[in-house]
Amino acid sequence: MINLANQLTNRNKFIIFGGGFSGNYFAKSIRKLGCTALTSSRSKNNDPNSFIFNSETNLLPESSIFEGATHILSCIPPDKNGNDPVLKSLKNKLQGLSLKWVGYLSTTGVYGNTNGNWVSEKDNPNPLQERSQKRLNCEKEWINSYLPIQIFRLPGIYGPGRSTLEAIKNKKIKVIYKDDQVFSRIHVADIANAIIYLIENKNKLDFHQIINIADDEPCAQVEVIRYGYKLLGLKMPEKILFEDAKKYLSPIAQSFWLENRRVSNKLLCEKLGYRLIYKNYKVGLDNCFINII
């Protein structure tokens, strides 16, 4: 593993579009290194590190937000027309800044269905869902923006406060099983730390514009649920076959079960040298469990 170069200091200022689960976790992580990190919100709040950005109502950040900005990370999904909200409203503004790096959080959904086979960055995208096609459109917008962009394709994201454990405790989970169906996932801490690792070592590493961030062990969702019930000391209900369950699922919930793929992290972990903090769902859920007991 390459030693961290400690390039990130209090001289760096991150503008993070999208103050949701991943964006906020990244902001907190980068602040620990002494960097300034501002996150967007669709409406005004009391967070001094927050600024307003709402492309739907054309509420744009004040110019002062961008003063001294060195890095941009966008976590905002496509708009209803499939366009990127940040670039639609702020592309010219961003192009006028002296940015060292720009990141965009995308989805491994752009690969579509591979019938359980492995996919890597070398595979051509083949999105099955409309939402994934919109993500791919946004990726292309960022690539064509002439900004120093790096795109991260993410599978199912979980972490403390948003995991199978909370779903079990809140009784918002269905134990659904489908033969030979697997999903990939990633702990939110590894999203943040992998990106920080790549930024800090960008002068030492070969540059790759598109990178998957996923853990080592794709598996059936029922395995994760079973382990969650075990951690909580509860008895798991009988599993329901997907064919029986789908009549009760929303269209978007059903759509997740139409795709079956294993996401490779070999570029990130083997070629670029990042070491996962949470290599699989067990160590990841152990971390989530510590945070709720």
Please, what is the oligomeric state?
single chain
Helicity, in percent? Answer: 25-40%
Strand count, sense and closure of the main sheet? 7 strands, parallel
Shape from CA axes? Answer: globular
- Architecture, CATH level 2? 3-Layer(aba) Sandwich
Q: Which regions have little confidence, pLDDT < 50, spanning 5+ residues?
A: 1-5
Number of strands: 13
Give me the side-by-side strand order of the main sheet.
3-2-1-4-5-7-11
Order of helices and strands: EHEEEHEEHEEHEEHEHEHHEHH
Mean pLDDT: 94
- N- to C-terminal distance: 34 Å
Count of distinct structural domains: 1
- Total helical elements: 10
Radius of gyration: 19 Å
> If you consult CATH, what is the topology?
Rossmann fold
Structural class: alpha/beta
Which CATH C-level class is it? Alpha Beta
Strand content: 15-25%
Write the CATH homologous superfamily.
NAD(P)-binding Rossmann-like Domain
